[in-house]
Every structure is written in structure tokens, then in C-alpha cells.
Amino acid sequence: MRRIAVVGAGQAGLQFALGLVADGYEVTLVAERTPEQVRGGRVLSTQAMFGPALRIEAAAGLDLWADRAPAVSSVDAVLVAPPAVRALEFTMTLDEPAQSVDQRLKLAGWLELLAERGARVEYRALDREGLHELARRHELTVVAAGRGELAGIFDRDAGRSPFDRPQRNLSCLYAHGVDAPDPAAGPRARMHALPGLGELYLQPALTHSGPCSVLLWEALPGSPLDVFGDDPAPDVRLDRIRALLGEYLPWEAELWTAAEPTDAGAGLSGAVTPTVRRTVAELGSGVDAVHVLGLGDAVVVNDPITGQGANSAARAAEACRRAVVEHGDAPFTADWMCRTAERFWQQHARHAVGFTATMLTMPDHLQGVFAAAAEREEVARRLANTYAEPSDHAAWLATPDLTAAYLAPQGTVP
Fold first, then answer.
1. In the chain, is it the N or the C terminus that has fewer CB atoms within a 10 Å radius of its CB?
2. Share of the chain above pLDDT 90, in %
3. Which residues contact 279 (CB under 8 A, 6 or more apart)?
4. Which residues have CB under 8 Å from 182's CB, separation 6+?
């Protein structure tokens, strides 16, 4: 039985480890926090899982909350012009419903499931020296920890990293009591674009205490929306949210009259520099040298504006699991690691990075897509499903010429 170590207990690390255990591998997973600590801590993300990632979880038997999490089939989008004018509106319909489960609930449950299924789970912090020792004792070591010292072992790939600083300052809140614009329409996500200021995303989700709403501000640094840098407590955060909604999105403010934070850990602030890192790191030297493979946001970090984080992590974990199984009994060399990572980059990760960069920079041709989506349902649907399958970005959104060709009336040349 081959021995594999996994470092990191997020979407990628846990899903990969659970998949390997099901395939008959001897797995050791190192996590910094216990399930109780994860459940009782602060929210971790604003994840929205789209159809392809949900199918991966379902096939692995990991969709433990599928019957309780709201199924979201559409996104109501509004382009806002000052002062508080709904200048453009359209609905984006997904081919497959999306779902959002509070990662405190999800990851704690998966940690417990991993131990139940026979993996060795070690709860401890791990530094570079500790990782080296772990890797020496296992045939393959995969690092899926995207924060802290271990994330720094993978060098930044300047040629593939689109930015060198955060493009948005982020603030999220999980809340109960948020009304829906049209309750009869069923669960819907909402997106508001405020040119020169940022974006607001709202999505139905499931948390410990049941269904809730997740709000995410994507504020341009220094803009009037950028007021959460002190990482306020949930109740203070809610007061500021209400003030912003009242000034910029009064129709949303009406829906938040009875809102309250879901719990004491319901808020989070921060910023993300979208970054691509090299996927293989060497530890030690000479006869003690070992190589480790990066996975998920340890090597590819996207701003959450397109919701690619957890989705890409799920797809990366499945791609890596398949590669391990297909490799049989052959050694996990640095060359194998590089080829495995490059295959996933070409098939998926580069498209998620490109799509996210387009949405962050809002080029003129993307604004043309929004205008067309307000007039043509098929354009709105294709935009919605590019979130679910970002490889389609390369076919119609990556350049002005591609977009013009797609939007041109049938039978004409743009």
C-alpha cells in the first residue's frame, strides 16, 4: 500500500485525501485545526460551488449537505450608475444549480469522515523543517495549504501571475433574516457592479444554523466601499453594510431591515493578490533532497470575484487523484509532479485565472457583453455558465475580437 502525505485541510487537501483513502492508499493528513476548532471559528470563505465541482463531490460521496443547501439556478445582475440608478439589468441562468455550504460545516465534517475512513489525521502546525521530515517518510507529499510559511515554499511564477497586488479589498458577512426580492422565484444569487467602486455579491447558503445569505463586497482599494479594513465585529460590519446599501443600493437596503449575523464568527475581511506559483518545491539537498507537489490555492490563488477558488480546488484534487491512480507503482518523481501540474494548468487553471483577470479589470468588450446580456438571453446564459466552466472564457471573452465575433448578428462579419 503506497504511503501519501497531505498537508492542509481545505477543499483541495481534504477531497484529495478522502479520494485516495477510497482508492486504497495509506494517507496521512496534517491539519492545523481540529473539527471543533473549525466549526467554532470564523467563516473561511464565500464559496459557491458550480455544477462540475458538485458532480465531482457527488461521485465521491462527499455531497453530505446536498439535500439541505439551497439550489441556486440563476443570478440577477445589475449595473449601477450613480447616484443609485439601476442602469442595466439581466438574469443569468445556470445549466446546473450551484450550492454554497459554509466551509466551517463542510471541512469539519470531512475531517471527521477522513478519520472514520481510516486515514491518519495529525493536528499540528508544520514548518519547512517539519514538512521535509514528513516528505522523507512518504512516497508522495502534497501541500494544499495556501497560507502561512508553507505557501511560501512555492516560488511565484511571474509569467503566469496576472497581478502583483490585490485588485479588491474584501469583506463578507453571513446573515439570517435577509429578504428575497421575489420569494416566489426560489433561491437566486444577486450581483451588482458599481463602476469605479467595486462589486457586491449576495448568495443563498447553508450554515450551522440553517439557510442564510452570504454577502461579499469587492471594493476597489480606496473607494467609498472600502470601509472594512479594521475587520470589524459582525454587528459593526452589518451597520456599515446597511449604510453602504442605503447610499448606493437602496433597493437592497430594504431587504436587510431584519438581518442579523448568523454567529459571532460570521464576518471576514481581507485582500487577495491573484498569484500563480510554481507547483514543485525541493526541500533539503544531496541525499536528503525531496520534492513536494503543490495543490489548490497553495499554487493558484484567484480573487473570489468569479467564485473559482473552491471550484478549482475541487477539480485540482480530482485531477491529481486520477494522476496518482494512473501512475500505478512508479515513483513519484519531480518530473511526474511537473507533468501532472502542467496538465491541469492547461486544461483548467489557466482559464480560471484568465476569466478572473477579465472580471477584475472590466475591459470595454466585457462591458459590451453586459449590454448584450440585457438584450439577449443566450448571452446572459453563456456568461453565467462561464463561471461554471471557465475554459469557455478562451472561446469568447478572452479578447475583443472573440467577443465581437460572438456578439455579431448571424451572417455578418464584425
1. N
2. 94
3. 154, 293, 294, 299, 337, 338, 341, 342, 345
4. 188
Is residue 287 pLDDT above 90, yes or no? no
- The C-alpha atoms of residue 150 and residue 77 are separated, in whole angstroms, by 38
pTM above 0.90, yes or no: yes
Beta carbons of 220 and 168 less than 8 angstroms apart = yes
36-77 pLDDT, tens digit per residue, is 999 999 999 999 999 999 999 999 999 999 999 999 999 999
Contacts 24+ apart (CB under 8 A), 182-187: 186/73, 187/70, 187/71, 187/72, 187/73
Whether the link from the prior residue into 261 is cis, omega within 30° of 0, is: no
**What confidence tens digit (pLDDT) does each residue in 222-259 have?**
999 999 999 999 999 999 999 999 999 999 999 999 99
C-alpha cell of 48? 459557491
Confirm or reject CATH 3.50.50.60 for domain 3-63+102-163+273-359, answering yes or no.
yes
Alpha carbon distance 183, 206 (integer Å): 17
Q: What is the pLDDT of residue 324?
A: 98
Check if the beta carbon of residue 92 is closer than 8 Å to that of residue 75. yes
- pLDDT given at position 83: 87
In the sheet that holds 290-294, the strands lie side by side as 120-123, 26-31, 3-7, 140-143, 290-294, 280-283
Q: Read off φ and ψ for residue 409, nearest 5 degrees.
A: -55, 145
What is the rounded radius of gyration, in angstroms, for the C-alpha atoms of the chain? 22
**Which sequence spans correspond to the domains of the chain?**
3-63+102-163+273-359, 72-100+169-271, 363-407
Name the CATH architecture for the domain at 72-100+169-271. Answer: 2-Layer Sandwich (3.30)
If we measure between CA atoms, which residue out of 160, 168, 128 comes closest to residue 300?
160
Cell numbers linked to 159: 509569467
Angle separating helix axes 11-22 and 103-116, nearest 10 degrees: 30
